[in-house]
Design goal:
There is one protein chain. Strands 2-3-5-4 form a four-stranded antiparallel sheet. Strand 4 and strand 5 form a beta hairpin. With about 180 residues, the chain is of the alpha+beta class.
């Protein structure tokens, strides 16, 4: 059995970095699957046929803000409302009166998808609920802004210092363990 001594690190921050990586990957996949239109659709709407996905990161005093945005079709609020009414008929009056901000929150519900067909990467209602759960794990927040026909922006905000738990990582039999210091 081989043990590798690694420099003492903040274990929670390493876990958080993995979570942030997963969240960003989900959002990029979501932009590709739902946001960016096919070239012919983009040309028809007067856009360049190549879509753009941007990721920016800004460090503030006590927070980090990451934005993932695309210049795609934006959220289809009518479709979100329609799916919400199918899944939650008992809330029909409430859903009918919801604004875009409230409707966008349905996207974070497990099993919710605006896709009519299921593909390998979209339509199962898995993705944004995982994003929400993971952001909550690291005490962060997420906000959606979308303009139909112009694109969507997800803004992630989370604490810069997530924990002060120190430890030493060791690897044994291809597994990683943390020994708290």
């Amino acid at each position: 059995m081989k043990l590798y001594h690694l420099i003492s690190r903040n274990a929670q921050e390493l876990v958080s970095l993995e979570i942030i990586y997963d969240v960003i990957m989900h959002l990029v996949r979501n932009a590709l699957d739902h946001g960016i239109e096919p070239p012919e659709e983009r040309r028809a709407s007067g856009k360049d046929e190549t879509g753009t996905i941007s990721i920016t990161c800004v460090r503030e005093t006590k927070h980090v803000e990451i934005t993932v945005s695309d210049d795609g079709r934006g959220l289809d609020y009518d479709k979100i409302r329609e799916k919400a009414l199918v899944l939650f008929p008992e809330r029909g009056d409430e859903i009918a009166d919801m604004g875009n901000r409230e409707l966008s929150q349905f996207l974070f519900r497990a099993g919710f998808s605006t896709r009519d067909t299921v593909t390998e990467t979209a339509g199962r209602g898995v993705g944004l609920d995982v994003v929400w759960t993971n952001i909550e794990k690291i005490k962060g927040r997420i906000k959606i802004e979308s303009t139909p026909g112009s694109g969507t922006t997800f803004t992630l905000r989370f604490p810069l210092s997530l924990s002060t738990m120190q430890g030493m990582f060791v690897f044994a039999n291809k597994e990683k363990f943390l020994i708290p210091s």
